[in-house]
Amino acid sequence: MKNRIIISCLVLIFSNILLYSQTKVEISETEKKHLSERVLQKVEEFTKSLSNMVNESLSKEVRTHHQQNILGLTMAKGEPYDIIIDDQKHHSTGVKMVTSSVNRSVTKSQLLKKYLTRLYNPITGKPGMNYHSITIETADHVQVENIQREGDHYVCNAIFYQYFRGKRGDGTSYIDYTAKRIKCYIIPTELPDGKGFDVKLADISVIETRRI
Q1: Distance between CA atoms of 53 and 47, rounded to whole angstroms?
Q2: Contact in structure between 134 and 166 (CB atoms under 8 Å)
Q3: What is the pLDDT of residues 142-186, one digit of tens each?
Q4: CA atoms 50, 113, 110, 187: torsion sign
Q5: Fewer CB within a 10 Å sphere, N or C end of the chain?
Q6: Contact between residue 210 and residue 102 where contact means Cβ atoms under 8 Å apart
Q7: What is the β-pairing status of strands 133-138 and 153-167?
Q8: CA-to-CA distance for 190 and 185, rounded, in angstroms?
Q9: How far apart are CA 69 and CA 6, in angstroms?
Q10: What is the C-alpha end-to-end distance of the chain, expressed in Å?
């Protein structure tokens, strides 16, 4: 009886170790390089859609498509989500966007969905900010930082740079150059041809803002 209990305990321990190893997928340096390229593509797609979304030369349909595409690139499409970190569930109320201005010393955090609607309201076709028109352009190459494990998934940060131009109704303009850091989740997932990883974008913070 005692031996049977010991064997049962060993089986249970082995099963837990096997489950742990299956959920915490190890990746090689080659795979990390490949995933860094995937992250780069996702962030570049994000910045391109951001520029197109505020581009008034495009139709409302096209601009709205790019707004939805941005959300599709993010965790839970910008809605609330849960993520496991160190075996603990962490809840997010949604992907956050931190904004800044050379005219104020503090930054402001808001939900990405709200920020996108302030940049471009798909109903009116106009910005919800105090600008008559907005232009956002990529200023430099995206930089992907080192990929690291975080619980049952991987994470990294990517840095992107942009010029923001807002034209007011009186003809004056606000222009700045901003460096931003975006958190990227690399999540193991089942694909039609086997196991793989899905890259989703998350919270965006400000590194630097300069007047132009």
Answers
A1: 10
A2: yes
A3: 999 999 999 889 999 999 999 999 999 999 999 999 999 999 999
A4: negative
A5: N
A6: yes
A7: antiparallel
A8: 16
A9: 55
A10: 79
**Alpha-carbon dihedral of residues 70, 143, 198, 137, nearest 10 degrees?**
10
Nearest to 102 by CA among 170, 147, 164: 164
Going 201 to 206 to 163 to 165, the CA torsion angle's sign is: positive
119 — phi, psi (to 5°)? Answer: -75, -40
Residue 190's Cβ-side half-sphere holds a number of Cα atoms within 13 Å equal to 2
Q: Could you list the beta-strand ranges (E) of the chain.
A: 81-85, 88-92, 96-99, 108-111, 133-138, 143-144, 148-150, 153-167, 173-191, 194-211
Which of 128, 138, 110 shows the shortest CA–CA distance to 166? 128
- In the numeric block, the tokens 């080659």 are attached to 30
Q: Tokens for 75, please give them.
A: 């965790």
Alpha helices in 88-142 (DSSP H): 112-119
76: left (phi over 0), alpha (psi -120 to 50) or beta: left
How many of the other CB atoms lie within 10 Å of CB of 167?
16
- The SS3 call for residue 125 is coil
The model carries a pTM of 0.87
Q: What pLDDT, in 10s, does the model give residues 97-152?
A: 999 999 999 999 999 999 999 999 999 999 999 999 999 999 999 999 999 999 88
